[in-house]
Amino acid sequence: MKINKKIYAIGTLAILATLIGGVSAFAESNTQGGPEGGNQGNRLGQMRRGGDLRPMMKPAVVGQVTAINGNIITITSKQVFDRNNNGTTPTPTTTTFTVDATNAKIEKGGATVILSNIIVGDTIMVQGTVTGTNVVATNIRDGIARGQEQNKEKGNQSTDGQIPANMQGNGLPIVAGSVTSITGNSVVITNKSNVTYTIDATSAKIVKGTTTGTITNIAVGDQILAQGNINGNNVVATSIYDQVNQTTKNAPKAKGIFSKIGSFFGRLFGF
After folding, report:
1. What residues contact residue 87 under an 8 Å CB cut-off, 6+ apart?
2. Cβ contacts of 158 within 8 Å, gap of 6 or more
3. Among 271, 204, 269, which residue's Cα sits nearest to residue 244?
4. Which residue from 22, 117, 197, 201 could staple onto 113, CB 3.0 to 4.6 Å apart?
5. Quick one: pLDDT at residue 244?
6. What is the pTM of this model?
7. Which is more confidently placed, 25 or 175?
8. What domains can be seen in the chain, in order of their start residue?
9. Pairwise CA distance, residues 218 & 242, whole Å
C-alpha cells in the first residue's frame, strides 16, 4: 500500500508539472517507488501541506526563483517534462513571471515564514491575481529548496497512464472549474468558491480524456483545466484539458493517471 501511495503521489506531481509548466524540480517521476520517488512524494507533500489546503480562488503559477529584489520575486516557469509520440523531447518553453509578494502569506516546510526564507533556486507555487506575466500574490508555497533536485531536467515521464503529447505545458498560469455555459468559442467556468472565469478557446488546443477534440466536445458540467494568458477573470487559453463531469453516472471509468488527477485538481483548484 505504501508503494502504491508513493506511485500515486509521483504520478500526480508529474501531471501537475506538465500542465502548469513546472520547472526542473517537478520534472522527474519515478514509477518504481524507489528513493528518488520517495523524495518526490515528500516534495509534493510539502507543496500540499503547510496549512489547510483550501480551494484556490485565483490562478496559480509555478516556477523557479531566479531573483529577489525587496518584495518582488522573479520566477521562471519552464516546460521540460513531456516527450513527443516519436520519443523526442520538445524544446522547452520558458516564461518569466514577476511576483509582488508584499501582502502574500508564505509557507515553507509546513510553516508560515517570511519572504527572506525564500532563496534563489527554490521552486514556488504562487496564487494570486495574474495580469499577463505579473502576479500580485496572496499565497506562496515554497516547496523545494535549491540543491534538493536530483537528475535535473531529464525529461522522464510517468508510465502510469498515457499523457497526450499535445497536452504539454507552456509555462503559463492555469485556472480550473466546472463549465457553466458555452457560447461560440467562449467557455465560462465556476469553481467551488463561486469565482467565475470566461475563457476564450479560439486558439486553444483541446484534449478530452486522452483524445484531441474541439470546443464542441466540451459540455456544460464538464470539469476543465485551462492554461493561457490571464487578465483578471478573463483567460485567452492556449490549451484546455477536459476531464469530464466526474459525477456523471454510468460513465466509463478512465484508466491510468488521468483517472487519479481529478480529485487532486479538485482539491487544489476548487472545482
Report:
1. none
2. 10, 11, 14, 15, 29, 31, 257
3. 271
4. 117
5. 61
6. 0.49
7. 175
8. 2-144 (2.40.50.140), 174-269 (2.40.50)
9. 7
